[in-house]
What does this fold into?
Amino acid sequence: MEVDLIKFRKPSGLDGQGLHQLIARCAPLDTNSVYCNLLQCTDFADTAIAAQGPDGQLLGFISGYRPPGREDTLFVWQVAVDETARGLGLGSRMLLALVRRLAPQGVRHIETTISPGNDASEALFSKVFGLLNAPWDRQLLFSSEAHFAGQHDDEMLYRAGPFALPIPSQA
It folds into this structure.
């Protein structure tokens, strides 16, 4: 697949079912209800990005939000990249495109949570934080025992910023 044929756009309600299917194909991501995915594509469309293949298939998606009282921060909830589009740098390209879209609104920090051992997410965010030339740190946010009754791994908070403009266009 050629990365130049993939189009980045804001999602719409028509993407909800496709997002649900995409996330189901992207272990180890936690699946949510179709209703949640519809909200990610509608109410949170301004802080999300969809990557659509030339055949119309949803190949990638990033969902996020701006935490109340911290309008300078994009919290990235999930990054999904279809198996057929892996190895193209699609995750970092989507994340940079989303940050470029939100930077004029004052976004200068990125946050996400990553479970230990999720090497793909750690590599993605480390790469993007480096491209943004942004200082970053990580700390335990939600522990497995205290927050998930041992049924889910710890969630580490990764926070980068502030980053300067302009945002790089290529990963």
